[in-house]
Amino acid sequence: MGKVSSSLLCVLVVWWTGTGAAQMDLYFLESPSNLTSSLGKDVRLRCAVQLSQELPEIGWLRDGRALELADSNQMQMPINDQDWLAISELSIPSVQLSEAGSYQCAVWVNGVEVLSDKAHLELEGLPFFSEEPQDLEVAADTPFNLSCSAQGPPEPVRVIWLQDGAPLNSLVDPMAWVPSTLALSGLNRSASFSCEAHNAKGVATSRTAAVTVVPQRPRNLGLVRRSESSLEVGWEPGASGDSPLSICTVQAVRSDEDLSTVPPEDIYNQNLNVPPFHHVIEGLAPFATYHVRVACRGRAGASRWTHWVPMETLEGAPSAPPENITAFQNGSRATVEWLEPRGHHGGILRGYKLAYQSPDSPEVVVDVGLTTEKTLDLASWVQNLTVRVAAYTAAGDGPWSNAIMVSSSYQLAPQTQQVRENVAPAFSWHWWYVVVAVAVAVAFIIFLILFLARLRKKETRFGEAFEPRMERGELVVHYRVRKSYSRRTTEATLNSLGISEELKEKLRDVMVDRHKVALGKTLGEGEFGSVMEGQLNQDDSVLKVAVKTMKIAICTRSEMEDFLSEAVCMKEFDHPNVMKLLGVCLQSTESEGYPSPVVILPFMKHGDLHSFLLYSRLGESPLYLPTQTLVRFMADVASGMDYLSSKNFIHRDLAARNCMLNENMIVCVADFGLSKKIYNGDYYRQGRIAKMPVKWIAIESLADRVYTIKSDVWSFGVTMWEIATRGQTPYPGVENSEIYDYLRQGHRLKQPPDCLDGLYELMASCWALHPKERPSFEMLHSELKKTLQSLPTAQGADEILYVNMEDGGAEQGAMGGLDPDQPTKGAVTAQVHQAEGAGRYVLCPAPPESSRRLGDPLAPPTPCTASEEGA
How far is Cα 693 from Cα 718, in angstroms, rounded to an integer? Predict the structure, then answer.
């Protein structure tokens, strides 16, 4: 509105008389002027005072209260030998609503406050939104509300709602007055909503909220039929919106333990083509309780899971016969003893049946109840008498034991004694005493070690240990204060490290002031450090970052120089498939030695690739990732590794967990180089053999701890297998300690069921015994691009598939866990967004119905075709 011109002049004459004080005249030549401005504009107010002596500072009041931190500029000058002129100008940059009100100047002279006239500052402009519509995911035909609030001045402000750009009301409708809530009875297709705020100054438009319509949760999930090894379940589909349901997913888990702690491999998971809306879960244990749930999806997205519904299989007969059967005969009496069957009985054990037979006589079967011993009263001594035993439940008889010959008592007595010794308790009291004594001794030794370590730590906490020495019969204590590091500036920290001037000059653009990094919640924690969400305060902006702190300290100047030199090189990395290092800061610690490094990396919205693959199979809304998407991931990793290998960098820990997904679903190789330099090789030394990721390491690296670019190629082959299996653990069933012998015998990872033959041949070439026979990353990247080009491309409405890794309290960040029943700790929402041009990821139908456990891939045995993508 320009500068404020003087519009009001007043003359205020104040007379006062004090003891020994002379009379003075005070004149306010100019008072602040009334002003009307707009939000965000700069405003200036001014006043001028004349006094017959040099003036004190002029203060400013707003609504009668002093402005303590007012941005005012005061100038004083003499008018003549007796009078002075003082001018004060108040600046208000980017004025806000809270700064509107009445303003006046104040001067204190000899204890008396003199005030100028009041000036009123009023604001007006386009409406300001205090609340805007937010994105929602709602079930089809389900009521929901959207809110939009705006305010002036000037008032009044009215709101018009728009759906897909078309207005839903007019300015004369009652709902146009703010605050405005749009209540909708439900939608059957996805739509966008926004609102317009109108006042006398014009129109302001809110953000556009996307309301995604997904199918309703299935209803009435229940048991249709059951047997001792299967459950047939049925359900009713919910409303699906404008597209029919195509896939339903059934999950079942045995509920002997807490559902939240069940490992993924123990969960039954099956994708079904629907209709019909029923499924038979087979291969279950008899007389066991299972929990079952269902979710369905169509083209618009996936529904929420039903609640877990408990179901129980029927009781079955025992699967094994009784054990350790002994029988002996004494005259006309025969005694038979046995032990109950091992393992699960298939139900509640109701008793045993005993069958005995003599030569040329029919077999006699006797129900003996739950006892494990039976005495038979025979008419006389019988020669070659045989017996056998079977257990039974309410479902029927279990298998019979093998028939055994009944012996006379004097022949069988030693054997019976031996059997009884075999089934005696596994320990005796003298062994128990030995075990207790050893445990007590070990506990005492551990306690002594911890006590001495704590005592030593206390002695050295503030410097070198006190060293007593007898001089002239007195105890003398020597103490030297440890070196401390300055935290004031980056320059002081670098100077304290003793590194070369050349390296310090290169670090000018790498080092970041530790005080500019604010830490937030922890995103993940590993063996050697943790990753936290953070904010990097730059000159004029705040950047969301991931901050990686190290648990292992750098102890020598050589290690520190190696780490900082590596950081200088990494700062220069510039490739779309390689995570860029934003900076490094050094954090002082209480322990002796060098400061520990803190690495600042870009924040990756969708977390690590391994977690993404797991969520696609095991999340709240399972997703099917087609072959095109998986090959694209492999090509991204190969491209990044090709770039790193061209820079002579050896990764040494390449795996899906160390590859990140940015907001554009592009894979970036992460954790490169740092592990090598920061830990100086300790990660792979024999002393840290337990820390080795042995299932990803090349065979020569396991044997000799030799690492080359070709050993990274081996790890890339394992990473391809992880991607092809959508996050499964390599070498299932093989322990870490057995991997080296397993590989030396010529075994390799098996071809996944739905993996293309060409892809498996490519990954198998990475596992050649001799490193020179393995392909280069350049060749791998080229072959993967050819494979991707040979696959069918999307036609029609292209779709990009996203997995939203940000959910409530568990946002997946730069460094990447599955709990489908805890929505605040890992629940996943699937969103399918339309995109222009060729789709990077395509959504294909689920595979044909077949009984698969959770660990099996969900993809079909062949890649999807163009007709499938349009389904």
Answer: 12
3-state percent helix, strand, coil for the chain, nearest multiple of 5:
25, 30, 45
For residues 827 and 619, is the Cβ–Cβ distance under 8 A?
Answer: yes
d(CA 213, CA 732): 39
And the tokens for 144? 């929901």
Q: Are residues 650 and 755 in the same domain?
A: yes
Rg, C-alpha atoms of the chain: 40
207 backbone φψ class: left, alpha, beta (φ>0; ψ -120 to 50): beta
Structural domain contains residue 459: no
Whole domain around residue 547: which residue ranges?
A: 490-602
Alpha helices in 234-317 (DSSP H): none
CA distance 622 to 816: 19
pLDDT at 426 over 50: no
Nearest to 477 by CA among 463, 491, 489, 487: 463
CA angle 32, 34, 36 (to 5 degrees): 130
Instruction: Write out the catalytic residue numbers.
Output: 653
Kindly report whether the global pTM for this prediction surpasses the value 0.85: no
Of 88, 85, 126, 120, give the one whose Cα is nearest residue 101. 120
Which H helix or E strand runs over 183?
strand 180-184
φ and ψ at 263, to 5 degrees?
A: -65, 150
Residue range 729-783, pLDDT digits in tens: 999 889 988 999 999 999 999 999 889 999 999 999 999 999 999 999 999 999 9
Coil/strand/helix, residue 191: strand
Domains in the chain, number: 6
